[in-house]
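Predict the holo structure. Ligand: zinc ion.
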Amino acid sequence: MAPQREWFEKDYYKVLGVADKDESKEITRAYRKLAREFHPDANPGNDAAEERFKEVSAAYDVVGDETKRKEYDEVRHMGPAAGGFGPSRGGPGAGGFNYEGGDISDLLGGFFGGGRGARGGRGAQRGRGPQRGADLEAELHLPFREAFAGVTTSLHITSDMPCETCRGSGAKPGTAPSACSRCGGRGAVDDNQGMFSFSTPCAACGGAGSVITDPCPTCRGAGIERRPREVKVRIPAGVDDGQRIRLKGRGGAGRNGGPIGDLFVIVHVSPDPVFGRSGRNLTMTVPVSFAEATLGTKLTVPTLDGANVTLKIPPGTPSGQVFRVKGRGVAEKKATGDLLVTVQVVVPTTLTDEQREAVETLEAAMPAVSREHLGV
Ligand SMILES: [Zn+2]
Ligand SMILES: [Zn+2]
């Protein structure tokens, strides 16, 4: 019962074909002309004309009345400040208009009231109408290999839950909330203040529509209690360090029949002694000797998805060379990554006399390494 809602959506001046600065005489003249033109008596059986006639009458009802016109102008004035109103901004919901995910009743200082239809977010704090449960955040530490493979695990969190004693009703077991006598269970009352007749949340029941006469002793009527619980979560394969996973409807309990919030799990992945990760690729560094790098060799390396693979290292492979094992990385929606194997030539740090002799013999047999390009 808030006909004024239409004021945000309809341009009554446009309907009457007048300007909003026009004097009332001109508005009346325009209205009479249109009313005559589209009057049902003059257009028997013409539904479109009848619609138009109703539209014109509704428009003149407002802007043809000096007081109402003033109020209408004020409401229109508020529109652009909020980024404009219009049907494209979402239809009238139970809790008023939606704008950018919020609730326009916030914007209008509660003209429309929250009532039973109050949505989550900023509009949820008012009254005892349904309130969305809190979004929760939990941290999860995973070993590298579990993050790669995906895992089902349990999280222990403490949050608002429906009270076990009263099953969330807030009423003492054996009793039931009774309908509010002030608002008749509607949760809202029409507030006629001359200008507006918006409905506001019922003060007697706080917008819930019901009153608890015998509150539950455990939750004192809130229907909610904080308690620890275990949440089973399925972490998808390939989750990366720092990733935030949203588990819909696993957060805190809503109040007064409001929806459950979400649970956000922040994943911390511990490093692995063998594997690293770069985007969807897995990485690995494998040591090789100078002789292996020089003469070529075969390397057998593990993968995270099963069988080992053997890499052919050709003769003359420089230290730091990367070998790609296709498709052995992290499987993502679009593509599966690769395993990138970096070979690193190991330089001995201690030598026996025999080893030193051998290296010196090698050095003598090899051409000197050129550093001429340094120009020194
Ligand atoms: Zn309770
Ligand atoms: Zn009430």
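The domain at 5-125 is CATH 1.10.287.110 (Helix Hairpins). The chain has three domains: 5-125, 130-173+217-271, 276-365.
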